[in-house]
């Protein structure tokens, strides 16, 4: 019995030491200068089972494409069902004209950032161009990396050619959830002749539906329908037994997806304006707010009204100021001592007057 209590005591001591270690780790936030996110309840995670339940009940599924930690936190807080880390980051974040240049390693950086911020939604990572087309083995290896290194729950791949269908089936058989993508597939602009809507003729409309069905047979849990006419999307949605997620495909899909930056109206730069899809509804004009804030910041820094006392929170007492000045003078740093004394005097005057400015007269 004595041995048992001795072991129990050592265990408790080790746990206490471990908790102290955790508190001291740099990646565990404390309530100091910078705060951190609150831990999420794993029971609140959206899973494929939850999505299937919503689909069976006819409840629309919400999806947002995001690429970094701050946007992922917003998506999480809003209660969005799915967060897609899209290869559209190549255009929206990196400034390319197409999605083709982004590499797998770059995608994994985006995936990990989103995984840190979005704890509730189902996380889906795009397989970037050139990382899954060569063989089923390559596709499976890439999908495994997206889950293991990127922290995703599932992957998305584009297109419905025989090789893509085979790749989707191989990834599913490897135990990884797959979302398909038909209609406008940006990675295929070389053969599509640009970012062009699909399904506008009888033959191409039928192909959209047939491709979606093939992806379903391959084991995909959902299919994105991009830039197709609403009747075509309605037909595909009716024909499938899995959810369709529309983007520029009208209101007859099982859910909708938009890019975070697009729906917020964040980027007003001409480069981005030319690639912002016309089907996107802007729910805010965040870009204008950002521009205004940056101009105001520049103005206040230029006229020395920022930072004033309200944003200079770290204090040193008058007695310590005097001691500091004496030490500077002992070191022969008279100019530094004068600068410190003048700064203390200006801050003191501004605080006394309630004026936020510390600009020189």
UniProtKB/TrEMBL annotation:
Molecular function terms, GO-annotated: 3-methyl-2-oxobutanoate hydroxymethyltransferase activity; magnesium ion binding
Top-level enzyme category:
transferase
> Pathway listed for it?
Cofactor biosynthesis; (R)-pantothenate biosynthesis; (R)-pantoate from 3-methyl-2-oxobutanoate: step 1/2
- Name the Pfam families for this protein: Pantoate_transf (PF02548)
HAMAP family cross-referenced by the UniProt entry: PanB (MF_00156)
State the species of origin. Answer: Carya illinoinensis
Q: Which UniProt keywords apply?
A: Pantothenate biosynthesis, Transferase
> Which InterPro entries does this one have?
Pantoate_hydroxy_MeTrfase (IPR003700)
Cellular component terms (Gene Ontology):
mitochondrion
Q: What function does the entry list?
A: Catalyzes the reversible reaction in which hydroxymethyl group from 5,10-methylenetetrahydrofolate is transferred onto alpha-ketoisovalerate to form ketopantoate.
Q: What is its EC number?
A: 2.1.2.11
Catalytic activity from the UniProt record: (6R)-5,10-methylene-5,6,7,8-tetrahydrofolate + 3-methyl-2-oxobutanoate + H2O = 2-dehydropantoate + (6S)-5,6,7,8-tetrahydrofolate
What's the protein name? 3-methyl-2-oxobutanoate hydroxymethyltransferase
Residues of the signal sequence? none
For the biological process aspect of GO, one term held by this record is: pantothenate biosynthetic process
The Swiss-Prot or TrEMBL record describes its family as follows:
Belongs to the PanB family.
Q: Mind telling me which residue stretches traverse the membrane in this protein?
A: none
């Amino acid at each position: 019995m004595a041995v048992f209590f001795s072991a129990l005591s050592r265990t408790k001591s080790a746990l206490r030491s471990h908790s102290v270690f955790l508190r001291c780790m740099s990646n565990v936030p404390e309530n100091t200068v910078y705060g951190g996110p609150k831990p999420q309840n794993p029971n609140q995670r959206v899973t494929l089972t939850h999505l299937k339940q919503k689909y069976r009940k006819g409840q629309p599924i919400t999806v947002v494409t995001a690429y970094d930690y701050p946007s992922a936190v917003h998506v999480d807080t809003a209660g969005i069902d799915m967060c897609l880390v899209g290869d559209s980051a190549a255009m929206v974040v990196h400034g390319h004209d197409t999605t083709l240049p982004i590499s797998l390693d770059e995608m994994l950086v985006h995936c990990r950032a989103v995984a840190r911020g979005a704890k509730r939604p189902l996380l889906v990572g795009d397989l970037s161009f050139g990382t899954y087309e060569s063989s089923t083995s390559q596709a499976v290896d890439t999908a495994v990396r997206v889950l293991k290194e990127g922290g995703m729950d599932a992957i998305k791949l584009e297109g419905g050619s025989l090789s893509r269908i085979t790749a989707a089936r191989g990834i599913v058989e490897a135990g990884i959830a797959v979302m398909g993508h038909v209609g406008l597939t940006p990675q295929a602009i070389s053969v599509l002749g640009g970012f062009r809507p699909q399904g506008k003729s009888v033959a191409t409309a039928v192909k959209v539906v047939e491709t979606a069905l093939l992806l379903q047979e391959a084991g995909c849990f959902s299919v994105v329908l991009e830039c197709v006419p609403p009747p075509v999307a309605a037909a595909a949605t009716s024909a499938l037994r899995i959810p369709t997620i529309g983007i520029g495909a009208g209101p007859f899909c099982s859910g909708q997806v938009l890019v975070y930056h697009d729906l917020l109206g964040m980027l007003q730069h001409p480069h981005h304006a030319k690639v912002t899809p016309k089907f996107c509804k802007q729910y805010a004009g965040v870009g204008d707010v950002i521009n205004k804030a940056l101009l105001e910041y520049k103005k206040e820094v230029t006229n020395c009204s920022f930072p004033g006392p309200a944003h200079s929170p770290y204090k040193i007492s008058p007695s310590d100021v005097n001691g500091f000045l004496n030490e500077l003078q002992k070191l022969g740093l008279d100019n530094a001592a004068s600068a410190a004394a003048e700064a203390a005097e200006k801050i003191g005057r501004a605080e006394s007057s309630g004026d936020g400015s510390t600009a020189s007269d």
